Structures are given as structure tokens and as C-alpha cells.
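Intended use. Records like the one below are meant for learning the mapping from a protein sequence to its folded structure. Do not use them to infer anything beyond what is encoded.
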Amino acid sequence: TTNARGMGSVVMTPQEGQTYYAEVLDNNQRQLVPLPPVERAGFCLSADAVSDTSRLLLTIMGTNRPATDSVYILIQQQGRLVDGRKIQLQSGVARVSLPMTQLPPGLNQVTLYDDAARPQAERLVFLPERVPPIRVVLGVNKTRYVPREQAIMSITLNDDGLPTVAALSASITDAEQVPGDTAAATIRTHLLLTGELRGRVEQPNTYLKSNSSETRRALDDLLLTQGWRRLSGTPATERLGGVSLTGRVLDAKNKPLTGAQVVVASTVPGQSFVRSAGADERGRFRLAGLAIADTVKLLVQLTDRQLKDIPAKDARLVLEGPLRSWEPDTSNILPNWTLLRTQLAAARIRQENDADFYRDKNTKLLKEVTVRARKFDERPDDIKRRSLHNVSDGTIIFDETATRLPNLYEMIRGRLAGVSVLQGQNGGYRVLVRGVSSIMGSTTPLFLLDGVPIQDEDGTALLAFNPGDIERVEVLKNAGSAGIYGVRGGNGVIAFYTKSIRSGQVEKKPKAGMIPLQLIGFPSVQREFYVPRYDPKPEESQSAASSRVDRRDVLYWKPVIQTDSQGRTQLIFPLSDVVRTLRVMVQGVTTDGRPVVGEALLRVQ
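Structure written out for the chain above:
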């Protein structure tokens, strides 16, 4: 027996060697439609989201299979993988019970693959929303209006007692002239149901009105009809692979690395390939068409636009998607409640006996605590060997994270207390160390490079050295520290030290290498969707063309409305001369992607 919309379902178990027909009666005309022949070997996938409102029951049956066989179940929603499991069949049968709380609401696509990753069957199931929908409260500033008066309407969104921010669209029509539209899907129905179906769905909003058993059965019959699809392997000429590697490339500060190139290589025999993709302005990349039908280990290399390797400290790869490993079926494993209660009781006893060790220990508020310490700046042995002095009045350390500067003069400008660096018009530099004086009449300090004096008469001698080779700069500006250099150190001493690999020192700069990556693949699937044929009659086309909405029926329409932090907004519009009841329709999406639908009739005149 079919429902009011002409759809229904029946459960049957076909027998081998039998031929089955569907008997159709239309206007007392009997017609036999042959059903597909019974296959000797294969799989059957059954999904039940009607019997239990909290769990999705999957039944997998296989004929002419080994005693112990494995299959794969993938659950996707709008092209996004949400769950994947490897299931063992015992005597050709497996039953899986999945909690609905772990799956997103709306249409979910369940695909069955055999042990060779070949698609065998597919089923669409609908899972209801587990939280109440967004509540839309509508109101006007007056109970009665005169014709053409300005009306102020308030809109408030409430999400289980809390305000919510959303982008909305509102339409206000004359309820007596424009009837309510029950044939068009609301944005909530479109996002959760009809957006994945082909053909016209009659009265789509009624499927989401309630979660009763009758509604769930009617919804399941709809998916068995307009959501039915046939699965077949993709032809070799059109095979692009069913796996897409998506993610983001971020720098050391977790900011998107624009323009980075991701090179992926596989060395597995029979599945070797090298593919590459570029990251967009948000650091996102997508490598599609990877012909991977099993778990495979890949190597990933990150480069810049010139294909130069990016060190590991400057970039990292963040994969997107929930599937990282096959999850075995655990539906038949029941928790040991007796053991769990014993463990909880033992944990409680430990916490009560040793309260100081656990989080519920007694705390004490301390008074002000002052910590004093001496700065420890031990000069490396190789630095000591390259200098005559043992102490300095100021030190600068340049590591790999330091800013690259054009020359040695700029390296000490503004970084050493009491040292002034001035640049002349001829391009030369003048360095002054305040607080010292020389009997030689010159103001230039003594420059040392690894202990070797450098004559700098015109302020350009230090331009000949590479600032990238300098790791340490020391300044001596008083007689106690610079006195060991005699008269030459009368104007102060500035000592530069080049980089050196020391004994036991580990190279901190990570070498740009290949990043190991494990990826789970499954082949692409060719689907045939249910597409009804519509042949409108000429009189129907003429009536549809002539029934146009009068502009005075639509009193106000605003396509984009933004609510504030309290979930509120308002509309201001003039009334017509004849309107008595307003039909207000508000739809939109919240900032976290939840649909908003509100409809009300408001009496105004």
C-alpha cells in the first residue's frame, strides 16, 4: 500500500533461479514489469534508520564468499567523508549499529565496498536533527494600523535560550492574496534533504515537521524512490581516482603560506606516481584524482613557487578530513559494566586517600613572591680563544631567527647601549662610543673580527663582510674592559665573531626533507540518479505563464539581513490600503551553518 504521495516499500528475499515481476494496475489495466534478475553472487546492503531513533542499523550480506571476509563502509555527506569502517563478515553476514550522535544530521550516503575496494551498493539515509531548531520570534510595534502607515517589525533569534547571529532573508506578503507556499522547500529542508535528491519532491517540508514513525517511514520510502541510485565501477577511460588529498600549508606562526607547492609521491609497486598542487591565498590545496584503493604511505615535499625546498621549521602540512585509519566494527562489543564500576570505585578511593595529589586538593594562597637570579652568560670556548678580553659591557647574539641586515654597521645600530651609528652623505658610516676618549684624536672605535683588528678610516671597511656570517657582537666601552687593548682601545672596542660549529653542537636548522604521510584510499564510483520525466501539457504552460503575482501583494522584501550580537534586527515598511494579515517568511543561516526558518501570520488592520 502506498502513502498519500504514491510511494511505498516492501521487504522481500529473492530466491535463486526465480524470476520476479511487479504487477501494476492503472485504470484497471494490468501490467507486469520484470524486476532485475537474481545474481548468484554479490552483496546486499540494508540500512534501517526508522526502527530506532538513536542508532543506524546496517546489515551486510554476501553470497558465495569466503568464511571470513572483509568489506568497507564509507559514509559521506555532500562530498565530505564523515565515517569509514572495515568490517569482518562472519559466514557472509555482518550487522553494524552506529550511534546517530556521531553522524551529521541530514542525508548521509552509505557506500559498501568489497575487499578489493570495488563499489557494491549504496544507500541514502536521513538522520534527524538532535537539537531543537532555531526559534524565530516575530513582533510588530502596534496591534492595529491605519492604511499606508509605517510598520516596524522586530525579529529575534533564539537558540535554546541563547541569542544567535545569522544572515537572513525576509519576505512580507498579503496573506489574503498570496497563499502559503507548501510546494517549495525551505532553506532548512533544502540543506538537510532536497539538495541531494533529483527531481521534484512533493510537499518537501512535511518530511521535517516531526520525527514520528509515520514520517520516518515516508521519508525512507522517498529515499528508496527518488534517492535510489545504481553503482558500477568507473570505466578505465574516465578513471581519475576516488581520493582527494586536501589540507592547508601553514608557516611557523600558523599563518597561511600563500603560493606554496605540495608535491606528493608514492613508491608503492603498482601505485607509484608523483603529483603536485599549489596553495591558494588561504594556504589551502587540493590534490584530486589520486588512484588509491587501499592504505598507502606517501611522501610529501613542500616547496616555494621556484620549487626550492621549504625547511620544516618554516612550513607545516595540516590535513583536513576525518578519515586517518580504518576503524574496525565494534557494534558487537558490549561494555563490561561490572569492571567499569569496579574501576570507578577504585579511582574514587585513590582520590579520597591522597587528596593532595589530585585536582580536588586543598589550595593555599601565597603572599607576594620575589624571585632573584643572576643572568648566566657563559662565553663559548672558541669565542674566548678568539679574543683577549674575558668580559664585555654589552653583547648581541644573532641566531637563525634574527632579522637579516645589509651590513655590519646596521647590525650594531640602535642595539648596543652607548653606541651611536651615523651615516654620511658619501655612504660611509661613523661609529661613536660614548663615555670614552682617545689621546690619538680619533673617535673611531677599534673593530675586531675574530680577534683581528680592522682599519676603518673612512667608515666603509665593514661593508666588505657578510652580515650573515656574524653570530655575536661584543662592545667594550670602559677602561676596565677595554684597557687590555691599550691605546688602540681608547675609543672603545667592538668585536665581531663569525659563526662556528662547536664540539657537540647539533645543527638546529632542519633540513628540508620528505614528510611521511599515510593515506586511505577508495576508488571513484559512477552513479545513476533517479530523474523523472516532466511533459507539461499546453494548457498547464499557459496557466503558469498567466498567473503572475501582483506587485501590491508583496509588501516588503529584504534579501540580506544581519542580526546583532543579541540575535535581533528589525524591518521598517509601509502597509498597503487593503492588507489585513501579513504573512512573514524569514529564512537564513547562522554563523555556524545551522538553517533558520520562521513563518508567522500577523494581523495589522
